[in-house]
Design a protein that fits this description.
single chain, 671 residues, mainly beta, Leucine-rich repeat, LRR (right-handed beta-alpha superhelix), 21-stranded parallel β-sheet, 7-stranded parallel β-sheet, 9% helix, membrane
Length: 671
C-alpha cells in the first residue's frame, strides 16, 4: 500500500511538472512521458496542439477515453502503447478538422483493444500502425487497404483467418514496400496464391500460427520481398525457388514439415543474412554452395536429415561473414574441420547430435569471438580441451555424451575460463579427483555483481539468441533463450572420485550443480551453504556418507534436490525448502530417517527370535528387557509435533521462455 501511495504521489508530481512545462512552451514539438507512472492523459492547451508533432505516453497507467484533439492536430507520431485506454468508434464530424489529419505513425501495442479501431477511417495519411499484443479478432476492414499504410503489425492477437486479413484480388493496394506481421495468432489454412499480387510486399511474418499446405512458389518471385518468416507452422512439401527474390535478407521456415533439398537458387540471393530451415525433414548435404554469399550471418540447419562429411576440399576460408552455424541433430559424419570458417567472426557453433568423430579441431582455439560451443552427443574421442581456456568470450561449453577421457588437471588458473557460465561434460569417461585448480579456473561462476544480476540479457544478438539443453531437476530441458546470469556445472555420468572439494563454494553464482553418477565419497561439503543462488543440486548415485548438513536449509532458492543412492545416514533436515522434497530425493539411503521417508528416527528394531536349540527362558528374558526399553522411549515422545514453514515464492524455471521434456536420464537402479 505504501508503494502505491508513493507511486501515485510521484505521478502527480510528474504530471504537474509536465503540465507546467506545456503551458510555458507554446512552441513545443515533441513531448515524451513514457515510463512516467501517469494515471491520466495529458491535457494539452490549444496553443500547444497547433505545434506538437510527436507525443509519447507509452508505458504508463493511463485509463479512459483518448481526447479528440489527438486526431485533428498537427501530430505526426503518437505512441500510447502499454496503457489501458478506450477509443471512440467514430468521432463526431464537428470535432474533426480534416486539414489537420496529419498523423503518420500510431502505436497502440498492448492497449487491451478488442476490435479494429474504426476511428482510423479519418486518418488518411496513416503509414505505420502498431496493434500487436491486443485482443483483436475478425477481419481487417477494406478501408484499411485504401490508405497509405506501409507497416501493419497485428502480432499476438486473436485473428483466425488469413483470407480475412489480406486484401483480395480486387484491392487497389499498391503502396510499398509493405510490411505485414500477424505472427502468434490463430491463423489456419493455406497461404492464398493471390498474396503474390501484392507486388510491393517487403516483409511478411505469419510465424507461429497453424497455417498449412505448400509454400506458394510465387513468393520466390517477389522482387521487393526482403523478409519472409513462416516458422512455427505446418507447411509441407518442398521449398520454392527464390530466383527472383533478389532483395531477400531474412528467410525463416523452421519448425514446419518441409522436405527435399535446399533450393540452389538461394545462392543467387546475394543480400541474404539469415537462413533458418531448422526442425524440418530436409535431406541434403552441407550447402557449401552458399559459401560466397557476402552477408550471410546466420545459417541454421538443425534437426533435419542433412548427411555426409563437413569438409571443404579447397582448404580455404569461405563464408566470410558467418557468425552462427547450427547443424545440430542431423546425420553428419566423419571428422569435423572448421578451417572453412572465418575464425575471428564465428560466435556460435552447434554441431551436437551427429556422428562426428576423431579429435576436437585445434583450430577452435583461433575463434576468439566464440561464445557458444556445443558438440554434445557425438563420438569425439579426446582429452579435456583445456586449450580453449584462452578464448576470451566463451560462455557455453557442452561436451556431453562423447568419448572424452582422462583427468582434468592441466588448467591455467591465472588465465582460466574468464566468461564460462555453462559447462556440461556429462556422460563421458573423465576420471580422477575433482581438482581445486579446475574449480579455480571457472572464474565467471564466481559471485556476480548486483549490476550483472539485475541485467536480464540473453546470450546472442537481436537476430539470433542461443539455446542450450541442460539437465535440470533430472530432466533434459531445452532453454530456448539463455540468460547471461544462468550458470550451470554438470559433471554427471563420469568416473570422478574422491571428496567433493570445499572450494566448490567459490562458484557462488551457480544455479545448477549435477555431480551424479560418479564415485564421489566422503561427506557432503558444508561449504555448499554458501551457494545462495543454487536452485538445483544433484549428488545422487555416488558413495557419499555421513549426515545431510542442516546448513543446506539456508539455500532458500533450492527447488530441486537429489541425494538418492548414497550411504547417507541420520535425520533429514526439517525446515525451509527441505520440507517440500519428496521420497525420491532420498531413496537408496537405508540409514536415513525422518520425513518425507516413512522410516521414523525413533524406530528401534526388535531382536530376532533365538536360533533353534536355545532355551525358551532366554528369549522371554530378552523380550522383557526390550519391553522396558520401549516404555522408556515412549515416555520421551512429543506427540503432535507441528512444523511451521514460510511458503516461498514460486521459483519455477525463471530463465526458461519455453522448454520441452526430452526424457528422463538413465540411472543405475538402487533401492
Amino acid at each position: 500500500m505504501r508503494y502505491v501511495q508513493s507511486q501515485t504521489l510521484l505521478s502527480i508530481l510528474i504530471f504537474d511538472a509536465l503540465l507546467a512545462l506545456i503551458l510555458l512552451a507554446s512552441v513545443l514539438q515533441t513531448l515524451s512521458c513514457k515510463f512516467a507512472l501517469m494515471f491520466a492523459a495529458v491535457i494539452v492547451p490549444t496553443k500547444t496542439q497547433d505545434k506538437l508533432v510527436v507525443l509519447d505516453l507509452s508505458n504508463n497507467h493511463i485509463h479512459g477515453v483518448v481526447p479528440n484533439w489527438l486526431w485533428n492536430s498537427t501530430l505526426l507520431r503518437v505512441n500510447l502503447s502499454f496503457n489501458v485506454i478506450d477509443f471512440p468508434k467514430q468521432l463526431p464530424l464537428s470535432d474533426l478538422n480534416f486539414s489537420f489529419s496529419m498523423l503518420r505513425e500510431l502505436y497502440l501495442e498492448s492497449c487491451n483493444i478488442s476490435s479494429f479501431p474504426e476511428f482510423l477511417k479519418s486518418q488518411e495519411n496513416l503509414e505505420y500502425l502498431e496493434l500487436s499484443n491486443n485482443k483483436i479478432s475478425g477481419a481487417i476492414p477494406n478501408w484499411v487497404w485504401k490508405k497509405s499504410l506501409r507497416y501493419l503489425y497485428l502480432a499476438n492477437n486473436h485473428l483466425s483467418s488469413l483470407e480475412q486479413l489480406l486484401p483480395n484480388q480486387s484491392s487497389n493496394f499498391s503502396q510499398g514496400p509493405f510490411s505485414f506481421d500477424a505472427s502468434s495468432n490463430n491463423l489456419s489454412g493455406p497461404i492464398p496464391n493471390w498474396l503474390c499480387k501484392m507486388s510491393r510486399l517487403g516483409r511478411f511474418d505469419v510465424s507461429y500460427n497453424s497455417l498449412s499446405g505448400p509454400i506458394p512458389n510465387c513468393l520466390g518471385n517477389m522482387s521487393a520481398l526482403y523478409s519472409l518468416d513462416l516458422q512455427g507452422n505446418n507447411f509441407s512439401g518442398m521449398m520454392p525457388k527464390f530466383s527472383k527474390a533478389t532483395q531477400l535478407s531474412f528467410l525463416k521456415v523452421s519448425e514446419n514439415r518441409l522436405e527435399g533439398k535446399l533450393p540452389r537458387s538461394l545462392a543467387e540471393c546475394t543480400q541474404l543474412e539469415v537462413l533458418d530451415v531448422g526442425s524440418n525433414k530436409m535431406n541434403d548435404t552441407f550447402p557449401f554452395w552458399l559459401e560466397k554469399l557476402p552477408y550471410l550471418t546466420v545459417l541454421i540447419l538443425r534437426e533435419n536429415r542433412f548427411y555426409g562429411q563437413i569438409k571443404h576440399f579447397k582448404h580455404k576460408s569461405v563464408f566470410p561473414t558467418l557468425d552462427v552455424l547450427d547443424i545440430a541433430s542431423n546425420q553428419f559424419s566423419g571428422e569435423l574441420s572448421i578451417d572453412f570458417l572465418q575464425p575471428t567472426r564465428l560466435r556460435s557453433l552447434k554441431i551436437g547430435g551427429n556422428k562426428l568423430e576423431g579429435k576436437l579441431s585445434r583450430s577452435l582455439a583461433n575463434c576468439t569471438a566464440l561464445e557458444v560451443l556445443d558438440l554434445g552427443n557425438n563420438m569425439v574421442h579426446d582429452t579435456f580441451p583445456f586449450w580453449l581456456e584462452k578464448l576470451p568470450s566463451l560462455k557455453v561449453l557442452v561436451l556431453r555424451a562423447n568419448r572424452f577421457y582422462g583427468t582434468i588437471s592441466k588448467i591455467d588458473t591465472k588465465r582460466g575460463f574468464p566468461k564460462l557460465r555453462i559447462l556440461d561434460i556429462a556422460s563421458n569417461n573423465f576420471s580422477g579427483d575433482l581438482s581445486i585448480e579446475f574449480l579455480q579456473s571457472l572464474k565467471a561462476m564466481a559471485e556476480m555483481t548486483n549490476d550483472e544480476k539485475a541485467t536480464l540479457d540473453y546470450i546472442g544478438e537481436n537476430y539470433y539468441q542461443d539455446s542450450v539443453t541442460i539437465v535440470n531437476r533430472g530432466i533434459e530441458m531445452l532453454y530456448q533463450k539463455v540468460l547471461t546470469i544462468l550458470t550451470c556445472l554438470d559433471l554427471s555420468n563420469n568416473s570422478f572420485h574422491g571428496r567433493i572439494p570445499e572450494e566448490i563454494q567459490m562458484l557462488r553464482s551457480l544455479r545448477v550443480i549435477n555431480l551424479s553418477n560418479n564415485g564421489f565419497s566422503g561427506e557432503i561439503p558444508l561449504a555448499l551453504e554458501n551457494l545462495k543462488d543454487l536452485e538445483s543440486l544433484d549428488l545422487s548415485q555416488n558413495e557419499l556418507s555421513g549426515k545431510i548438513p542442516a546448513q543446506l536449509t539456508s539455500l532458500t532458492f533450492l527447488a530441486a534436490l537429489n541425494l538418492s543412492c548414497n550411504q547417507l545416514e541420520g535425520s533429514i533436515p526439517q525446515s525451509n525448502q527441505f520440507i517440500t522434497f519428496t521420497n525420491d530425493s532420498y531413496r537408496g539411503n537405508p540409514k536415513l530417517c525422518g520425513l518425507p521417508l516413512s522410516r521414523k528416527c525413533n524406530e528401534v528394531s526388535l531382536p530376532m527370535p533365538p536360533p533353534p536349540g536355545e532355551g525358551e527362558d532366554s528369549w522371554l528374558n530378552a523380550l522383557s528387557t526390550w519391553k522396558i526399553a520401549l516404555i522408556g522411549y515412549a515416555s520421551g515422545l512429543i506427540v503432535g509435533l507441528c512444523i511451521g514453514y514460510t511458503a516461498l515464492n514460486e521459483l519455477g524455471n525463471k530463465w526458461v521462455d519455453k522448454f520441452k521434456k526430452c526424457g528422463k536420464r538413465n540411472r543405475r537402479r538402487c533401492r
